[in-house]
Amino acid sequence: MKRFAVRTLEAVLTLWLLATLCFVLLRAAPGGPFDAEKAAPPEVEAALAAQYRLDQPLLSQYGHWLGDVLRGDLGPSFQYPDYTVNQLIAAGLPISLVNGGLALLLALAIGLPLGVWSALRAGRWADRVLMFGAGLGLAVPKFVAAPLLILLFAVTLQWLPAGGWDGGWRSAVLPVIALALPNLAYCARLTRAAMLEVLGADYLRAARARGLSETRLLFAHALRPGLLPVVAWLSPALINVVSGSAVVEQVFGIPGIGRYFVQGALNRDYTLVLGVVLVVGAAIVLINAAVDAARAGMDPRLRDADP
């Protein structure tokens, strides 16, 4: 119970510091949410500032915003006046969750078997080719991979749509692949390295000497400890998917929270950016907690080391 209370307090303080820092940086950035090439009449600017409390001192704005957040109200959007930030996030979050979840599942479903297979054939030509491909996948950023996928599968082959979102599987294929590629490559490399270390352990040599088959060694003795580094990597992998969704959703024109974040930052939509930051920050805190629990369940030494 004490450990749970300490971690909850740490999570709340982390989110508060993140939101406060983001609030200050947004207000310090040049420009404002209602700046335009043609300036509005002074009375219109004054009315807008009063409506969104931008005419108040910074500390007062912060106090009002924080009070609204504690009540579950993320405020109105400056650039989408017909919607609140809660409504925009409620509409975009499921789309981002679907794409991000499918991307991570794809990375694990392909990366884990490839990593194990490569470790069992370490040093052979197939292993070298696979690791070269994995290194290439890590080197190509998402903002390069996404247009290349569009060029190949949408423009040249015309198999899939180039962008947009209709809720069908065809519109999800390219974004999911673009999000999954770097995680898939890293998962394969990490699994290979972890399995090589485990397969060379003394207890596995002793098991081989007792006549156990390689298949039993792999599934009964090597796979579980070999996957511990992969489980630990799930936390940064999920965070990578969350952060990468901003680029991918912008390229493919998907109305997820990543695209809302980019548009909100460009348009100085303070409340929308702060709302997305809070939601993503809370998701990262929950992801870290879930991964820590999974690691402790797989490795009793981690449970015993916790206070």
TrEMBL record:
Protein name per its UniProtKB record: ABC transmembrane type-1 domain-containing protein
Pfam family, one: BPD_transp_1
Family: Belongs to the binding-protein-dependent transport system permease family. OppBC subfamily.
GO molecular function: dipeptide transmembrane transporter activity
GO cellular component terms, A-Z: plasma membrane
Cellular localisation: Cell membrane
Classification lineage: Bacteria, Pseudomonadati, Pseudomonadota, Gammaproteobacteria, Lysobacterales
Lipid bilayer topology: Multi-pass membrane protein
Keywords of this entry: Cell membrane, Membrane, Transmembrane, Transmembrane helix, Transport
Major location (coarse): membrane
Organism: Arenimonas metalli CF5-1
Domain ABC transmembrane type-1: 93-295
Residues that span the membrane, as ranges: 88-117, 129-155, 167-186, 272-291
